[in-house]
Design goal:
Elements: E1 7-10, H1 35-44, E2 48-54, H2 56-59, H3 65-81, E3 88-92, H4 108-117, E4 125-128, H5 131-139, E5 143-147, H6 152-156, E6 164-166, H7 169-178
Parallel strand pairs: 1-2, 1-4, 2-3, 4-5, 5-6
Length: 181
């Protein structure tokens, strides 16, 4: 049986990007300080870098699927400019009432990532700023980290169990590397 990979699977808005409440303009992406150097450390240690994001703004009609792709394309260009490779961006474009299996905390995106990248989800780490991100990781038996950026401070009180609470994504990465997960 081939060796299984491990990945850090991150939320987008509020975790990597400053929360913008339905970001609709690629030029308004604000990436948190030191995200690129932190992710480069993970990549150098063999971690796959994957993003999983609910984008209900598409399903709600706030912006088009094309606009969302333009935002992701700009982010990936910024990554490339910073010599960083994101392995994949998985997304759920559905309205919360659609009952899909890909919207966090359902694990459709995680199962798709596991299949595509031969991941052992139990060896993966999920990082996010919302209760749905943490539940998402827990349902897949991954380690979970709540970041206090975005909605993190607000959601901290709602979360009963999490493997680690980090002030920022770079501090989450430091914890992962320190604990050799």
């Amino acid at each position: 049986m081939p060796h299984k990979n491990k990945a850090v699977i991150m939320d987008r808005d509020g975790t990597l990007f400053r929360e913008a409440n339905y970001l609709q303009d690629p030029e308004k992406i604000e990436i948190y300080k030191d995200v690129f150097p932190a992710l480069k450390k993970l990549s150098a240690r063999g971690w796959k870098l994957i993003i999983g994001t609910n984008q209900s703004g598409v399903g709600r009609g706030y912006f088009s699927l094309n606009t969302m792709h333009e935002i992701h394309d700009r982010f990936l260009r910024l990554c490339k400019k910073n010599r960083l490779k994101i392995d994949e961006i998985f997304f759920c474009p559905h309205h919360p009432d659609d009952g899909c299996l890909c919207r966090k905390p359902q694990i459709g995106m995680l199962l798709a990532a596991a299949k595509k990248f031969n991941l052992d989800l139990k060896a993966c780490v999920v990082i996010g700023d919302k209760t749905s991100d943490i539940l998402w990781g827990q349902k897949a038996k991954a380690k979970t980290i709540l970041v206090l950026t975005g909605y993190g401070l607000k959601h901290r009180k709602k979360i009963k169990k999490v493997d680690y609470v980090a002030k920022t994504l770079p501090s989450a990465v430091d914890w992962i590397l320190k604990n050799e997960l």
